[in-house]
C-alpha cells in the first residue's frame, strides 16, 4: 500500500476502474523473501507522459517489466485499453520497450532497423511510414548507415522510431538516456517530450534521475521500497512534498524539528526551537503535535544581522555561515543555527549583494507559503543518502 493513503491522487487510482489507459490493481511481485512491488495501484491516462521515479531497488523497473510481460506478477492485475493483459504473452501486448542499451540490429542499416517490426508482421507499403518515423526523430539523412556509424543519441532516436512505428498503446522507456553524457542527455529530454507530444502515445518512463523526470513528465510517481510515496505533477511534488522521502529525494530540503501549537483557520503555527513560524494548512501533513518544518534551500532568504528581508512572518536570527560554495549561477551556504543544525541556503548570483564569508553572522527568512510540515514519525534523512545508479 502507499505510505499516503490519504493522498487524493493515490486514492483515485485505487478506486478507479480499468479504462482506456493503463491500470494496475494491487500489483505485487515477490522474489523469494523480497517484495519488489507491494500491492501497487496506479492509473496512467492515455496520451500522457508518465514517470516512475525512484532509487535503485525501489521496484520501478520490475513494475515496467510486468507491464511489458517480461515478469509475471505474484498477484494483482494489469489492464490496458480496457483489456486484462496480466497474463498475456509479451508479443501479444500493445506495448513496446526502449532500453538503455538500444538493442539495435548491428547488421541492418537504420532504415531496415526501423522497418523490422512491420516487415516481420508482413505489413505492405511501409516505406512511407518508415520515412515518416525517421523524419519524426530527425534522422532522414542517416537512413543507410549502420548503428555503429551513429552517435549514442542518434542510436537512441533509431530505437524510438523502431518502437513507435509499431503504434503501441504504451511506449515503455527503461532508463533510456542513462548511457548518454550530460549535455546530450539534456538535449534528448527535450526531444523525447517533443516526440511524445507529436505522436500522442502514452509514454511510461522509468528513471532514477529527478531532473529527467521533472523535465519531461506530466505526472510523476515517486517509488520507494515497492510502494508509491506520492504521485502528482512535478511542481506539486517539489513544492508540496507529503513525505520526508519525497522532500529529500526530489531536490533538497531543510527539515527542522518543530512542535505544532495551533491549527487556526488556514494556517498552522509551529514552535521551531523557540521561534514561532506559520505554515499553510494545505501544506501541513503532520497529524500529531510534532512535525518537521520543511523549506527548500532556494526559498530561504539570507541577510546581515538586523537586515529587513522580504519574507514577513518567519525570521530566524542567530545564524553563522559555516561553509560557502560558489557554483556559478548561485552561491550555496551552510548556516549553523543556534540549536546546532546546519541549514542550506541557495542564493542566486545577481551581483546585487556581496557573497558572505565563513564566520559571518546572518539572519534567515522565508515566506510562510513556501514552507511545509511533515510527519515527525518519518525519518528526516529518508531519501537523502541514496547513491545514483
Defining traits:
single chain, 389 residues, alpha+beta, Rossmann fold, OB fold (Dihydrolipoamide Acetyltransferase, E2P), five-stranded antiparallel beta sheet, 20 strands, 34% strand
Summarize the structure.
It contains nine helices and 20 strands. It has 389 residues and is of the alpha+beta class. The chain folds into two domains: 8-239, P-loop containing nucleotide triphosphate hydrolases (Rossmann fold, 3-Layer(aba) Sandwich); 250-375, OB fold (Dihydrolipoamide Acetyltransferase, E2P).
Walkthrough of the structure:
The model is unreliable at 1-19 (pLDDT under 50). With 389 residues, the protein is of the alpha+beta class. A hairpin with a 2-residue loop joins strand 12 and strand 13 (275-280). A 6-stranded mixed sheet has the order 6-7-8-3-9-10, with helices on both faces. A 5-stranded antiparallel sheet has the order 13-12-11-14-20, with no helix packed on it. The chain is 23% helix and 34% strand. The chain has 2 domains: 8-239, Rossmann fold; 250-375, Nucleic acid-binding proteins (OB fold (Dihydrolipoamide Acetyltransferase, E2P)), CATH 2.40.50.140. It is built from 9 helices and 20 strands. It is elongated, with a radius of gyration of 24 Å.
From the spread of the alpha carbons, the general shape counts as: elongated
- Write down the CATH topology of the largest domain: Rossmann fold
Note the beta-strand portion: 25-35%
Helix content: 10-25%
Main beta sheet, described?
6 strands, mixed
CATH architecture of the largest domain: 3-Layer(aba) Sandwich
Structural class: alpha+beta
Question: Span from first to last CA?
Answer: 25 Å
Query: How much is the average pLDDT?
Result: 90
Overall strand count = 20
Amino acid at each position: 500500500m502507499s505510505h499516503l493513503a490519504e493522498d487524493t491522487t493515490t486514492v483515485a487510482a485505487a478506486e478507479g476502474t480499468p479504462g482506456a489507459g493503463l491500470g494496475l490493481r494491487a500489483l505485487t511481485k515477490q522474489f523469494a523473501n523480497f517484495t519488489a512491488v507491494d500491492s501497487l495501484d496506479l492509473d496512467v491516462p492515455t496520451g500522457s507522459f508518465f514517470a516512475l521515479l525512484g532509487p535503485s531497488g525501489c521496484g520501478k523497473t520490475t513494475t515496467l517489466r510486468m507491464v511489458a510481460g517480461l515478469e509475471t506478477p505474484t498477484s494483482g492485475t494489469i489492464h490496458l485499453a480496457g483489456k486484462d493483459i496480466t497474463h498475456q504473452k509479451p508479443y501479444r501486448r500493445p506495448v513496446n520497450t526502449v532500453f538503455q542499451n538500444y538493442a539495435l540490429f548491428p547488421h541492418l542499416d537504420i532504415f531496415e532497423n526501423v522497418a523490422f517490426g512491420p516487415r516481420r508482421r508482413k505489413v505492405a507499403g511501409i516505406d512511407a511510414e518508415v520515412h515518416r518515423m525517421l523524419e519524426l526523430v530527425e534522422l532522414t539523412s542517416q537512413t543507410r548507415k549502420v548503428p555503429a556509424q551513429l552517435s549514442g543519441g542518434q542510436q537512441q532516436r533509431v530505437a524510438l522510431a523502431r518502437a513507435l512505428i509499431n503504434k503501441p498503446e504504451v511506449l515503455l522507456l527503461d532508463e533510456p538516456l542513462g548511457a548518454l553524457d550530460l549535455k546530450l542527455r539534456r538535449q534528448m529530454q527535450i526531444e523525447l517530450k517533443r516526440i511524445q507530444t507529436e505522436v500522442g502515445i502514452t509514454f511510461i518512463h522509468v528513471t532514477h534521475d529527478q531532473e529527467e523526470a521533472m523535465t519531461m513528465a506530466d505526472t510523476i510517481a515517486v517509488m520507494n521500497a515497492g510502494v508509491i510515496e506520492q504521485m502528482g505533477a512535478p511542481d506539486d511534488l517539489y513544492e508540496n512534498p507529503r513525505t520526508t522521502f519525497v522532500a529529500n529525494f526530489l531536490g533538497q530540503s531543510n527539515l527542522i524539528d518543530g512542535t505544532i501549537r495551533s491549527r487556526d483557520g488556514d494556517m498552522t503555527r509551529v514552535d521551531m526551537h523557540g521561534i514561532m513560524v506559520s505554515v499553510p494548512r494545505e501544506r501541513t501533513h503532520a497529524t500529531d503535535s510534532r512535525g518537521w518544518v520543511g523549506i527548500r534551500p532556494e526559498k530561504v532568504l539570507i541577510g546581515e544581522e538586523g537586515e529587513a528581508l522580504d519574507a514577513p512572518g518567519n525570521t530566524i536570527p542567530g545564524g553563522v555561515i559555516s561553509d560557502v560554495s560558489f557554483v556559478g549561477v548561485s552561491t550555496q551556504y551552510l548556516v549553523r543555527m543556534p540549536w546546532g543544525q546546519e541549514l542550506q541556503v541557495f542564493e542566486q548570483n545577481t551581483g546585487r549583494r556581496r557573497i558572505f564569508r565563513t564566520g559571518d553572522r546572518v539572519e534567515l527568512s522565508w515566506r510562510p507559503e513556501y514552507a511545509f510540515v511533515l510527519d515527525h514519525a518519518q525519518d528526516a534523512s529518508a531519501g537523502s543518502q541514496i547513491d545514483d545508479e
